[in-house]
Specification:
Layout lengths: L1 E3 L7 H17 L1 H12 L17 H19 L77 H8 L17 H6 L11 H9 L13 H19 L45 E3 L1
Parallel strand pairs: 1-2
Helix pairs in contact: 1-3, 3-7
């Protein structure tokens, strides 16, 4: 049993140990394997392949297992390291502690958006982007997207999502108009409501956080630890509600074999959502 802490409560030593473990995973090549895995399983509504990671009910259990595997990789380097979470409803400015020189570094510079500060700056020689969609070799960010401003989600927006007692709903994709999963994952119909919650955080950070290989930016893990915590809060708020769909969809359904019901094993681990509903024996949040 270990504890995942709010990043703002990490000590200097805890930050240093986490950064060192991240850099060691990068040097070994194992970090980029996680980046490639996320890219491989980022399947959209428009594609015919099964959708386990995004735009589907299994968004939460898939990322819980993904985060666990990554955390175990970090702990193979330093057994005392855990993945902290970033509560972006509170730490919602570029001046927040996670963007400090001794932690994740700050925003990208004007022009090419290259991150020039912190341990993951290309100039430090330890963080070359290898698994990518673009041709860039350095970490990029564009906080708040000044050319077309976007803000981080608010406590009220998160509370609204958490208040929905329904986990997910037909058609079980990015167009679902009801349910906690799609509301918090953040797919909308368009206009100002197009990007919400989880998705809007990716867009606020910008740069490499925008694409399928978003784990290239280490803040990805802190963001998804917070998403995992929000799922935990939703479960506690609605103890009589559960993962949906509970049963495999019929062959006549457009999403047949494209989404994962409660007991259908998800790739690449061959583990069903049912096995990932409770984390209490593995870790807790502080």
């Amino acid at each position: 049993m270990h504890t995942r802490k709010n990043q703002r409560n990490l000590t200097r030593t805890e930050k240093r140990r986490l950064v060192n473990a991240l850099l060691e995973l990068k040097r070994s090549g194992r970090y980029d394997e996680f980046v490639r895995m996320h890219g491989r399983y980022y399947v959209t509504d428009a594609e015919d392949d099964p959708r386990a990671a995004h735009m589907a009910p299994s968004f939460f259990p898939w990322h819980r297992r993904f985060l666990l595997e990554f955390e175990r990789a970090l702990q193979s380097v330093d057994s005392g390291v855990t993945v902290p979470y970033w509560d972006w409803t509170t730490d919602n400015t570029p001046a927040s502690s996670l963007w400090a020189e001794d932690f994740l570094g700050g925003n990208g510079r004007a022009g090419d958006r290259q991150v020039m500060t912190g341990p993951f700056a290309y100039g430090k020689g330890n963080w070359r982007i290898n698994a990518r969609i673009s041709d860039g070799k350095f970490l990029t960010r564009n906080f708040g997207r000044p050319s077309d401003p976007v803000s981080l989600p608010t406590k009220a927006e998160v509370a609204k999502a958490l208040s929905d007692p329904l986990y997910d709903a037909d058609p079980w994709d990015s167009t679902a108009s009801r349910g906690f999963r799609n509301t918090i994952e953040g797919w909308g119909a368009g206009g100002s409501d197009r990007w919400r919650n989880h998705n809007r955080v990716h867009r606020w950070v910008g740069g490499l956080m925008l694409g399928a290989t978003s784990p290239n930016d280490p803040v990805f893990w802190l963001h998804h630890a917070f998403m995992d915590l929000l799922w935990d809060r939703w479960q506690k708020a609605h103890p009589r509600s559960g993962y949906l769909p509970r049963r495999r969809l019929p062959e006549s359904h457009p999403q047949y074999r494209r989404v994962f019901s409660l007991d259908e094993p998800m790739p690449p681990w061959n583990v069903a959502p049912a096995a990932l509903l409770d984390h209490s024996r593995l870790y807790r949040y502080e």
